[in-house]
Amino acid sequence: MDDKKKKIFAISGSTRRNSSNFKILKFISEHINDQFEVEIFEDLESIPYFNPDLDNENPPEIVTVFRNKIAAAAGVLICTPEYVFSLPGSLKNVLEWCVSTTVFSNKKVGLITASASGEKGQEQLSLIMRTIEAEFDNETQLLIQGIRGKLDSDGNITDENTLISLLAFIKSFEKQVGELN
């Protein structure tokens, strides 16, 4: 990564390869301002189940790597589906590994829930991120309902309203992360 560019760490809440959520993060990485460089985390399933007994001075190495990427980023993007009116367990798990730290405290985040409905998942993600003191507002949150009908197989946004909303989200996130801390 270019050291002069601000780093954005992106997390897909889906473990499915080439999911709609991954495609949205790819779209953002291709349309974000040149002052940012996006790294999409693709190893969600490799994070072990959260265990408070292991959350000590020597947590599992992959957890340390994950936390360090969040800490080093100027901003974090999370794009997740909703499973059974909730967050996917794998996403909630990685966020639980961050509760005992301050990696999200005052961290600028963008939150997207892209699913069939997504309302409950978005509520839960917002609540969790507020609890761990992440910084976001209404302009850096986006709910995309019926996502499968709004993307083609190559990840192109086929719904004009979704495209407009996503581009506005990107602009708001860029502005938020571009501001001095």
Structural notes for this entry:
Pfam families: FMN_red. The protein has one domain: Flavodoxin domain (Rossmann fold). It is globular, with a radius of gyration of 15 Å. It contains 5 helices and 5 strands; from the N terminus they run βαβαβαβαβα. The protein has helices at 20-31, 61-72, 89-96, 119-131, 160-178, and strands spanning 6-12, 36-41, 75-80, 108-115, 141-145.
Produce the secondary structure layout.
Layout: E1 6-12, H1 20-31, E2 36-41, H2 61-72, E3 75-80, H3 89-96, E4 108-115, H4 119-131, E5 141-145, H5 160-178
Parallel strand pairs: 1-2, 1-3, 3-4, 4-5
Distance between the termini: 22 Å
Oligomer: single chain
Low-confidence stretches: none
Helix content percent band: 25-40%
Query: What is the 3D form?
Result: globular
Find the count of extended strands (DSSP E, 2+ residues): 5
**Spatial sequence of strands, sheet with the most strands:** 2-1-3-4-5
Strand content: 15-25%
Q: What is the level-2 CATH architecture name?
A: 3-Layer(aba) Sandwich
Q: How many helices does DSSP assign?
A: 5
Give a quick account of the main beta sheet: strands, pairing sense, barrel closure: 5 strands, parallel
| Backbone structural class | alpha/beta
The CATH class is identified as Alpha Beta
Mean of all residue-level pLDDT scores = 95
CATH topology: Rossmann fold
Q: Return the string of H and E elements.
A: EHEHEHEHEH
Number of folding domains?
1
**CA-atom Rg in angstroms:** 15 Å
Pfam family, one: FMN_red
Protein name: NAD(P)H-dependent oxidoreductase
Organism: Flavobacterium shii
GO molecular function: FMN binding; oxidoreductase activity
